[in-house]
Amino acid sequence: MALFFNDSILHAMMIMAAIFQKASEEDQKYVRMYCGEFSLFRDKTRNKVLNEKISCSLEGLDRDKMEVWNNIDFFENLQQALNHFLNQDGCLLEIIIANNAETLPQNTNWNIIRQNIDNHKIKIYKLKNDVGLDHFVTTTDSYRVENSDADKTAICSFRDKDTANILIDNFKTLLTLSQQMIY
Question: How far apart are CA 147 and CA 151, in angstroms?
């Protein structure tokens, strides 16, 4: 177990893909997310990710590393990790959204989300009141806790069951302050 810092939206995409991959391998295939508006999976994020990738300096990279960099699609990799997770038997993604859950159906990923709501692999809740808690995602032993939603910075860890259990308890408390969204 080691804590590490997530320092950008590109890094957030990588961490979230790794969390979904990790959850796919766990006995309890369960991911709990408390987020503002499920923004990492929204259409507007695809452009933010692309713009951030374009603005990265490639100075000092050799040709092979530049080619690898150019072929990475951070947004698509996260979508694939989510789909892989949702294709696992017995998986569950529970999401508590603090803001504007009503706009989810306007996004490209809605078909995947809707299908998995119908087959009981995704449950979406809306928080009734702002509680001022940092957004987080957790599996049974891995997590990402945001420091800044705007910058997508966070503290992350894998194989830290004790802290993950605290976040799971926080999530259960937030569920009591939320109502399930019916789509």
Answer: 9
Q: What are the DSSP calls for 105-135, one per residue?
A: GGSTTHHHHHHHHHTTSEEEEEESS---PPP
* Residue 72 DSSP label: -
Q: What is the pLDDT of residues 5-63, one digit of tens each?
A: 988 899 999 999 999 999 999 999 999 999 988 888 888 999 999 999 999 999 999 99
Residue 103 DSSP SS3: helix
> Do residues 175 and 165 lie in contact, with contact meaning Cβ atoms separated by under 8 Å?
no
DSSP 3-state of 148: strand
**What is the tens place of the pLDDT at every residue in 62-94?**
999 999 999 999 999 999 999 999 999 999 999
- Say if residues 9 and 45 touch (Cβ distance below 8 Å): yes
Verdict on whether the full-model pTM lies above 0.85: yes
